[in-house]
Amino acid sequence: MNTALQLYNTLTRKKEPFRPLSAPNVGMYVCGPTVYSDVHLGNCRTFISFDLIFRYLKYSGYKVRYVRNITDAGHLEGDRDEGDDKFAKRAKLEQLEPMEIVQKYTLGFHDVLRMFNTLPPSIEPTATGHIIEQIEMIQEIIKNGYAYEANGAVYFNVEKYSKEYNYTILTNRNLEDMLANTRELDGQDEKHGRLDFALWIKAKPETLMRWPSPWGVGFPGWHIECSAMSAKYLGEEFDIHGGGMDLAATHHTNEIAQSEACSHKQPAKYWMHTNMLTVNGTRMSKTAGNGFLPGELFTGDHPLLERGFSPMTVKFFMLQAHYRSTLDFSNEALDASEKGFRRLMNAVSLLDKLVASESSDFEVQPIIANCLKAMNDDFNSPVVIAELFEAVRIINTVHDGKGKISAVELSHLKKLMNDFVFDIFGLKDEDTSNTELNSVLDLVIDIRTSAKENKDYATSDKIRLGLQSMGIQLKDSKEGTTWNKI
C-alpha cells in the first residue's frame, strides 16, 4: 500500500496525505457526460486525467470502485433550471425517441474513450435508471426541512441551508455577492429565494421524458442525480469526487448541499477538478469558434488544424500538463508532442534489442523513485514524463554502443517503461501495432542489406534516403538495422 500519496483538496486549498475512509478500498465518483451531443475535448481531458488516477491507485495496491455517471435526463439549458430539457430538444430536432439520442451519443462517448485507451469505470449508472433513488433523496431533504414543494416542483432552500452549513465551502464565493448577481424573483416565480434550485421539475404537456412522483409527473433536476448515485454505490461518505472545474461553482456546490441536507455528512473527502482547455491562448468554446471534437482533431478536419493527430499523440499531449493546469492546444504544441511520443515509443521498442553487460554505467532505481514521488505528489504526470525521457536517453546510449548496462539495471529499465508508459499512463504504440507496416519495412531493410553486401551502395543509399523523406529513419549497428519515425 502506498502511503505517501498526496492529493490536492479543493475544500482546503492544500495537499493532504491520502487517507481513504475505508482503506484499502477507495471510492471515486466522477461526473460523466451529458449524452445529448458528441463528447467534447474538455470531457476527454477530464476522463483521461481520472483514468490516470484510477490506474495509479490500482497500481499502488488500492481496491478502487470508480463510478462515472451518464446524464441522460433532466439537464436543462441553464444552471438555474431555466429552458427546455436538452434531450427532448435534440430528439425533436432529429425526430427520434429521447432514448435513441441517449444510446447514440453514449456509444459515441465510449468509442472515443476506447480510442484514448482508457479503462472502463467499475460502475457507470444512468440518471434515468435511478429515478427512485433520486425521489427518495428529495423526500429525505424535504423531511429535514431544506426543500419545499411548489405547484408540482420541488426546490432546495439555499437560505435555510446556509444558516447551518457553508453553502460556498467549495469555491469560497461570497454569498451576498452571489445574491446580488442573481436576478430578482418576479411574481410568477415559484422559488422562495433567488439561489434556490430545482430538485424535481414539473413536466409540461409536451415533455417527453417524465416520471410519476409524490409531487406529480415530472423529472429530476440536474444536480440530484449525482448525489443519489454516489450515495448508492459509494456510501454517504467516500474518498474522491471529480470533474471539470466548470462544475465546481454550481453543480458540485449543489451536490454538497443536497448530500449534507440529506445525511448531515459531507459526501467526499477530496474534490478534484481538471482545468480548462485553451486554443492559442483563448478559451476553447463553441461560441468562440475554436472548439473542435476529438474526431476533428484526429482527422485534421477543422480550420484551426493544419493536419490530424493520432489519439495517442493527443493523450500524450494532455499528460504533459498537470490536470489542474490550463492546457493550450496549438499546431506547434501538438507537433512537438507527436515527436516526443514517437521518441518515447521508439526507445521502448529498442529495449528487447539491448544486450546486457557485466557492469553498468547507469542506475535506474533513482529514476523509478522520482517517478513514484511525482505521481505521489498529486499525480504529477509532466514530471514523470521528464524522468521517462532520462530513461530514453539511457536506452539510446546503450543501443548506440556508447554505454553499458547490466542485466539487473536492464530489468529495472524494462519494468519502469512497462509500468509507467503502458500500465499507468495507458499509452500504446500505434506504429508497432501496424503489422503490415512492420512486414513491409522488414522486407525493404532486407533488400537494402543485400544491396550493401553486394556493394550496391547506390541502391542502399536510395532506400535510406527514400525512407527518410517519408519520415522513417534507418539506424545501422553491429546487431543489424533498426528503424524509427522522425
UniProtKB/TrEMBL annotation:
It holds the Pfam family DALR_2. Its EC number is 6.1.1.16. It comes from the Bacteria. Zn(2+) binds at C31, C226, H251, E255. GO terms for molecular function: ATP binding; cysteine-tRNA ligase activity; zinc ion binding. One of its GO terms (cellular component) is cytosol. It is found in: Cytoplasm. Binds 1 zinc ion per subunit. A motif ('HIGH' region) lies at residues 33-43. Monomer. This is Cysteine--tRNA ligase. It comes from Pedobacter frigoris. The gene is cysS.
